[in-house]
UniProtKB/TrEMBL annotation:
Keywords per UniProt: Aminotransferase, Pyridoxal phosphate, Transferase
PROSITE patterns: AA_TRANSFER_CLASS_1
GO terms of molecular function: transaminase activity
The protein, known as: Aminotransferase
Organism: Virgibacillus byunsanensis
Cofactor(s), names only, from the UniProt record: pyridoxal 5'-phosphate
Keyword Methyltransferase: no
Domain (Aminotransferase class I/classII large) ranges: 31-385
SUPFAM superfamilies cross-referenced by the UniProt entry: PLP-dependent transferases (SSF53383)
Top enzyme class: transferase
Lineage: Bacteria, Bacillati, Bacillota, Bacilli, Bacillales
């Protein structure tokens, strides 16, 4: 069968490829430690599960409005007011099947053939693919490690063309864990306003910040910037709810309406029960998540120290999310490998530790390690990586 042109260049997620290899080794009986996970290793809090159970028993198992139940959109409006001091109406919110589908739908309604979207690298793997699927062109700009992997206003200015429609800002970032401060967001927003480009602000890791710094949304800069921003968020990472598939987008009514129309012909609606679960998540505050955040923070300190102790590996300290993104270029060379990807494969084969090569994130000299696993496993993984590096010196 001759497949559609638009899927011929679609690449499988690099995160999933290494996970598949690790799984195969595990099935063969090997003791594999996977540092590839993109989800919290904690269970969804009990009160959220109970809310879903009640929804099922009370017959809330039917189609819902395409853009999500009104109660949940109201709860999201409240969340924005309380957490971010941003005022939205319920028509400016769409609930989607995960944040991933909010982004997918957004690009579908936004982009015409060859419209450009600026994607700062290192980037989350799905941005370029989703932009291409919508007929757009992802324009990748390398945010330098010296600048904590953050896009500068000059880089943004120099990349904008008459075809630029939007730029993606992901803070805290997957894969780097870095965050823009208020000043940096103001400067970037000035460039966006000047050139009238839309800001897609992916804030899915908002609740996982370990420095004590507040989360800043670029939409908070001014009313004008808010009108030119679509915020993407969801409960996957903040409430350990990756499998429930509830995300949302907030912004301009016309864009949200178009996204809702598209959703009505694609998903119909996000799962009704999961929407009631997310409603409970937002109505009950963040109490149950403090422990998760505390554990992540301790693991970050530990793994960051252990990784920097390995010859040829250097790692900046991330501020949020649950990933480390060390530069392993030196170690790769010292160990006699040409490319990071080969080094990662050899590490998996010899020491049974699975990392994700940075190439999938547009940063081929780095690797991504997730610390969404137990402290014992993190220590063991770091010990094995060090042994691998030393054995290949
Ligand atoms: N945006 C970023 C940066 C992510 O890392 C992820 C998940 O890995 C998503 C969006 C999608 O989240 P969801 O599970 O809500 O679709």
């Amino acid at each position: 069968m001759n497949l559609a042109e638009r899927v011929k260049t679609l690449t499988p997620s690099s995160t999933l490829a290494i996970t598949a290899m690790a799984k195969e080794l595990k099935q063969q009986g090997h003791d594999v430690i996977g540092l590839g996970a993109g989800e919290p290793d904690f269970n969804t809090p009990e009160y959220i599960i109970e809310a879903a159970e009640n929804a099922m028993r009370n017959g809330l198992t039917k189609y819902t409005p395409a853009g999500g139940i009104l109660e949940l959109r109201e709860a999201i409006v409240n969340k924005f007011k309380q957490d971010n001091d941003l005022s939205y109406s319920t028509e400016e919110i769409i609930v989607t099947t995960g944040a991933k589908h909010a982004l997918y739908t957004l690009f579908q309604v936004l982009l015409n053939e060859s419209d450009e979207v600026i994607v700062p690298a290192p980037y989350w793997v799905s941005y370029p693919e989703q932009i291409k699927l919508a007929g757009g062109n992802p324009v990748v700009v390398n945010a330098l490690e010296e600048n904590s992997f953050k896009l500068t206003p000059e880089q943004l200015e120099n990349t904008i063309t008459e075809k630029t429609k939007a730029v993606i800002i992901n803070s805290p970032s997957n894969p780097t864990g870095m965050m823009y401060n208020k000043e940096e967001l103001i400067e970037l927003s000035e460039v966006c306003i000047k050139h009238n480009i839309l800001i897609v602000s992916d804030e899915i890791y908002e609740k996982l910040i370990y420095t004590g710094d507040p989360h800043n949304s670029i939409a908070q800069v001014s009313e004008k910037v808010k009108q030119q921003t679509i915020i993407i968020n969801g409960v996957s990472k903040s409430h350990a709810m990756t499998g429930w598939r509830i995300g949302y987008a907030a912004g301009d009514k016309t864009i949200i309406k178009a996204m809702t129309n598209l959703a009505s012909h694609s998903t119909s609606n996000p799962t009704s029960i999961a929407q009631y679960a997310a409603l409970a998540a937002y109505q009950s505050g963040n109490g149950a998540l403090d422990q998760m955040k505390k554990d992540f923070s301790e693991r970050l300190d530990l793994l960051h120290e252990l990784m920097n102790d390995i010859p040829g590996i250097s790692c900046q300290k991330p501020m949020g999310a649950f990933y480390l993104f060390p530069n392993v270029q030196e170690a790769v060379k010292q160990n006699g490998f040409e490319r990071v990807d080969e080094w990662v494969t050899a590490l998996l084969e010899e020491e049974k530790v699975a990392l994700v090569p940075g190439s999938g994130f547009g940063s081929p000299q780095n690797v991504r390690l997730s610390y969404a696993i137990s402290t014992e496993n993190l220590k063991e993984a770091a010990k094995r990586i060090k042994r691998f590096v030393m054995n290949h010196q």
